[in-house]
Amino acid sequence: MQALWLENQQLDLREVPEPAWPGEALIRIRKAGVCSTDLELVKGYYPFTGIIGHEFVGDVVECDDPAWVGQRVVGEINVICGNCEQCLGGRSTHCESRTVLGITKRNGTFAEYTTLPIANLHRVPASVPDELAVFTEPLAAALEIQQQVHIRPTDRVLVIGAGRLGQLIAQTLALTGCDLRVVARHPHQQKILVERGIKLILEEDVQPWRWDLVVEATGSPGGFSLARQAIRPRGTLVMKSTYKGEMSVNFSSIVVDEVNIVGSRCGPFGPALRLMEKGKVDPSVLIAAEFKLGEALQAFERAAQPGVLKVLVEP
Ligand SMILES: [Zn+2]
Ligand SMILES: [Zn+2]
What we know:
The chain is an alpha/beta fold. It has helices spanning 36-43, 85-88, 130-133, 136-148, 164-174, 187-195, 221-230, 251-256, 269-277, 296-304; strands at residues 2-7, 10-15, 25-34, 50-51, 55-62, 72-75, 78-79, 99-100, 113-116, 121-123, 156-160, 179-183, 211-216, 231-239, 260-263, 287-292, 310-314.
């Protein structure tokens, strides 16, 4: 089959054998999305060799349990052991021997087929089209904030960054009824938010020490520094992006202001599918372009351009 292979920071479209993993479901990919993590993998921020991609919707074509064959599914990306201290403690996304779809020791989704254990799969409701379902994984990651932090309707909440993930964070936080503002740099990012009734704030208008909850979704030192200034004493700072290399931070001020810092990664798929089924969020407004798998290299070039939101690839 055709697949997008990453090795030594080089992407290469090549023929590889169809995957066969005993005990796992074989899934034919319908659509896959390019995520910032994919672009970081290409830059070599994490070591990975193999087929990249982890955001997908597809059909189960082969599986030990016949009830799943023919089902349209999305899949959780962490494949876990179920036996380590993290798994047994209910922190299975932190499994000590996990493999991660297209990220760690497991081939991903920019291919005709991929495999995952049945336990990772979620059926997609018929009313959720592929161009929405392909967003389940990043939408779940956005919802992880609400799994971790109690957001009160009276909270002043600031989201810094309105890229791929920032947009989904803004859409989901808007549902809580909190007093939400978003710092968005690119005009089309701003337009998408405004069209959904989400309020913007200019970077220079962000009042220091005033915000109950700040979500940092830029992955840049500048974004972190703005978040740090904005948060009120005893406020909560949610870190939703990874950072290139190491970042220098004045931790004394964080101690003095008693700031809570929460790292935030993968979230719950069930609620993400439910919100799309009910039309409460619309991630499809992020779609910038769609490419065929044969043009996957162009898809990555497009996704890497500044301000471009979601690029989809289909076999
Ligand atoms: Zn992702
Ligand atoms: Zn485990």
